[in-house]
Amino acid sequence: MEELEVVVAHNERATLRVGDVFLKIDTDQTRTDVEVEAMAIAPIPTPEVLWRRPPVLALAAVPGTALGRLGEPSTASPAAWAAAGAAIRTLHDAPLPPWPGPSLDEIASRLDGECERLLADDVLPADLVTRNRKVAEAALRPWTPVFTHGDLQITHVFVDGDQVTGVIDWSEASRGDAMFDLAILTLGHEERLGDVLAGYGTDVDLDVIRAWWSLRSLVAVRWLVEHGFDPFAPGCEVDVLRSRM
Questions:
Q1: Considering only CA atoms, which of 228, 91, 75 is closest in space to residue 166?
Q2: In whole angstroms, how large is the CA radius of gyration of the chain?
Q3: Which of 10, 112, 185, 202 has the fewest beta carbons closer than 10 A?
Q4: Domain for residue 203, yes or no?
Q5: Distance of alpha carbon 153 from alpha carbon 233, whole angstroms
């Protein structure tokens, strides 16, 4: 009998691992639709879809290990981080997916709403929210859309040595801002940005990447707390916000 591991679980989604199979259970089948289609058209390594019986999606485990974890030093080599950057460039250069992503107005509205709640509920100090809200402004500009992963956390990029072996969790994939993917990959690992860009190449706006670090952290803090995660842990989202002060 294979041991069952709960990878993540909250009131919207759960992921279980049984041997080399991941079972993803999602209350919103639209997200699963996006994930399956995105993996089918992405030009970089993705998990194999074994079967789908809503609300469950079964995926084969990808080889290798995650690039790292938020709040912990990454032991992956600079070449592995550069390989991740090269894979992101390949994705961003691919044809656009047929579905849109969040609009600039939607993102700005969410940012404003989250900042208001953070202050009203006294979740974070006012100066921390105000400073990072100002930094985040640089991300709120028109961009040329590319094929983005949409949730490119370092735990979603797997490597073996200096090669990318798979990128997982595609439910947020859409047309979006290239700088957003680069920011999410390096969130909390600013020291690795140079390695990523060595593989990614040119056409990068560092101020916008920094702005996305602030924006992503601001809009994530309340959700993380409400779903049992700890954005106040060392090296995580609140520390990312403090680093902009």
A1: 91
A2: 18
A3: 202
A4: yes
A5: 16
Domain that holds residue 223: 63-242
- Report yes or no on 29 lying in a domain: no
Domain membership flag for residue 137: yes
Q: Is the pTM of this model over 0.85?
A: yes
Residue 126 maps to which CATH number?
3.90.1200.10
Q: Rounded to an integer, what distance in angstroms lies between the CA atom of residue 149 and that of residue 81? A: 17
Question: Dihedrals φ, ψ of 226, to 5°?
Answer: -70, -20
Rounded to the nearest 5 percent, the helix, strand and coil shares of the chain are 45, 20, 35
In three-state secondary structure terms, 161 is: coil
DSSP 3-state of 173: coil
For 149-231, strand residue ranges (E) read: 157-160, 163-167, 174-176
pLDDT of the residue at 11: 82
